[in-house]
């Protein structure tokens, strides 16, 4: 094993991981599931656990020095980069038969995600991102040219994700956009990378929810940060803003970071 695998090798391995996760997800999708409420009240299923266990075994076999951070099984320390896994992003969609759930895989090096995979098992769709290249189904992905809030097609998973002062900022933001759509979890960010929506804002996310999105959005020409405009890392606070263009991102950011709202 090479000490420092080439980016192409790492991305190929990440896609191979996603390939192996798909049939596991589909074996459980739209079947009777043992749904358990986690401490944060989000549901976890057999599928989440089975996928993460499989991916951990494969990562440890291929890159034993790498760290792993998964939603269901926590952190395995390592001396190298860290693989960040969300086996089923959109578990509520999964357990209700909605096909807008995904598997998210990121590789983080020196604190920043250097590659990301957004895989949609039930749809057979996939976005990948690494510096300089975002792909959807193997073809280049590119964000739209939307620059203004009044023209923006906006997504968030649910308005219930915004609490307290965040809710007030969210309401002001959505009052100014062109179209509002809800649901989708990671799928919304894939749609943004391919130019079908323009703006996504969320709060309360975990690193495994957002790190895989960063390389995809950035390589597609978009901007994705926290609500203060800072780069997303393992230590970010869970507030995420993604936009098709720097101008649109700046307009939305001005609202979300306004402490007087």
From TrEMBL:
One of its GO terms (biological process) is L-histidine biosynthetic process. Keywords: Amino-acid biosynthesis, Histidine biosynthesis, Hydrolase, Magnesium, Metal-binding. Pathway: Amino-acid biosynthesis; L-histidine biosynthesis; L-histidine from 5-phospho-alpha-D-ribose 1-diphosphate: step 8/9. It holds the Pfam family Inositol_P. CDD domains: Bacterial_IMPase_like_1. This is Histidinol-phosphatase. It catalyses: L-histidinol phosphate + H2O = L-histidinol + phosphate. Belongs to the inositol monophosphatase superfamily. One of its GO terms (molecular function) is metal ion binding. Its cofactor is Mg(2+). Its EC number is 3.1.3.15. InterPro entries: His_9_proposed, Inositol_monoP_metal-BS, Inositol_monoP_superfamily, Inositol_monophosphatase-like. It comes from the Bacteria. The keyword S-adenosyl-L-methionine does not apply. Mg(2+) binds at residues 71, 86, 88-89, 209. The keyword Metal-binding applies.
